[in-house]
């Protein structure tokens, strides 16, 4: 089950518009505190910049969004970046676009385009990943049961994450949370009830898209 989309890593991109230098940086952020720490770090790095425009989206559904224009005309800087995050379905991420003024005024439309384009470039550099909730189960079984399980069709109910081979085999499998009971029953059926369930837990996994 996909919980949300976020950025895969921290990344930076740069754009020049009418001699103004725009530097966009995006970072995964699981909380407002993480986002604020990222903003503070970027402000310290670019303390001589004309503007450091922050924006973030937090929560599995982007429930908490915030942005600031940092001295640019209202609605021309932070708000377009926040709208971009929403349009791309990106959450639990923070973006800061830094501007070094080049002497040429861009106008409201030019500012919106420049801040949006810079943030978009940074997102492209960072990559996007999907965060899923998975049910992970550990089973212990004899080698014969393990061989039978490996060779049997699984119908896509679960995937094998790994195995440890000692006197018996400890097998780790993952399934969608809503299919956990069915996957557990299938493992037991394929091993004729010889598999012993050692543990079962829900974890978050991410995969870049």
Percent helix, as a range, is 25-40%
Architecture of the largest domain, CATH level 2?
2-Layer Sandwich
Mean pLDDT, all residues: 93
CA(first)-CA(last) distance: 15 Å
* Portion in strands: 35-45%
Number of separate helices? 5
Would you state the CATH class of the largest domain? Answer: Alpha Beta
Spatial shape: elongated
Largest sheet: 5 strands, antiparallel
Number of structural domains? 2
What are the key terms here?
single chain; 209 residues; alpha+beta; Ribosomal Protein S5, domain 2; Alpha-Beta Plaits; 2 domains; five-stranded antiparallel beta sheet; 5 helices; 40% strand
Concise synopsis of the structure shown:
With 209 residues, the chain is an alpha+beta fold. Helix content is 31%, strand content 40%.
Explain the overall architecture.
The chain is α+β, with helices and mostly antiparallel strands and 209 residues long. It has two domains: 2-126, Impact, N-terminal domain (Ribosomal Protein S5, domain 2, 2-Layer Sandwich), CATH 3.30.230.30; 132-208, Alpha-Beta Plaits, CATH 3.30.70.240. The protein is built from five helices and ten strands. The chain has helices spanning 32-45, 78-88, 107-126, 143-151, 180-190; strands spanning 2-7, 11-17, 20-28, 51-58, 64-67, 93-100, 128-141, 159-165, 169-175, 196-208. The strands form two sheets. Strands 1, 7, 8, 9 and 10 form a five-stranded antiparallel beta sheet that branches. A hairpin with a 5-residue loop joins strand 4 (51-58) and strand 5 (64-67). The longest helix has 20 residues, at 107-126. The radius of gyration is 24 Å and the shape is elongated. It starts with a strand and ends with a strand. The relative contact order is 0.18. The model has no long low-confidence stretch (mean pLDDT 93).
């Amino acid at each position: 089950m996909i919980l949300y989309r976020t950025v895969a890593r921290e990344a930076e991109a740069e754009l020049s518009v009418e001699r103004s230098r725009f530097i966009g940086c995006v970072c995964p952020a699981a909380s407002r505190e993480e986002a604020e720490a990222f903003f503070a770090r970027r402000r310290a790095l670019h303390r001589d910049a004309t503007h450091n425009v922050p924006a973030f989206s937090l929560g599995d559904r982007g429930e908490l969004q915030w942005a600031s224009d940092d001295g640019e005309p209202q609605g021309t800087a932070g708000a377009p970046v926040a709208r971009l995050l929403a349009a791309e379905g990106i959450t639990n991420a923070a973006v800061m676009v830094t501007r070094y003024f080049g002497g040429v005024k861009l106008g409201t439309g030019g500012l919106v385009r420049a801040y949006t384009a810079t943030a978009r470039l940074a997102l492209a550099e960072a990559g996007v990943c999907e965060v899923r909730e998975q049910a992970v189960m550990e089973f212990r079984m004899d080698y014969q049961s393990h061989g039978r399980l490996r060779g049997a069709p699984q119908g896509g109910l679960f995937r094998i994450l790994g195995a440890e081979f000692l006197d018996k085999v400890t097998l780790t499998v993952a399934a969608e949370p809503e299919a956990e009971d069915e996957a557990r029953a299938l493992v037991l059926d394929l091993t004729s009830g010889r598999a012993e369930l050692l543990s079962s837990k829900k974890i978050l996994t991410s995969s870049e898209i």
